[in-house]
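thought: fold this chain, then report.
action: predict
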Amino acid sequence: MHRLFVEKTASFTNESSHLIADLRSNLAIETIASARIVQRYDLDGLTDAEFSKASHLILSEPQVETSSTELSLFLDETAFAVEFLPGQFDQRADSAAQCVQILTGKDRPFVSSARIIILKGPLSSDELAAIKK
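observation:
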């Protein structure tokens, strides 16, 4: 099983800015200093070489994103993942699996995806529960 974390570079983080504005205006949580949104991919059925190739050609855009096999968090950051429930259709994972199948010329690999929301700043458990809700 391979895992990849993909994050937009600083100049392309519009979605994070919108998330911060939304949390501040709708939930009145002013303590959030910044937010990061990371796309997580889990792939099974690939060799290390195939995973490396898929990471750079399919799962990330090297011009605007950074990718890593490890997620780094700082002490003042809180992270949680949002993913589809079993049985729900995940368009991103399905498209990635199709593209990887074309790339390798083998059977379609297992691919799942999730979005990891990373918030910086002091958050109470009630605020975090409100954000997750």
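thought: worth noting. Residues 14-27 form the longest helix (14 residues).
final: tokens above.
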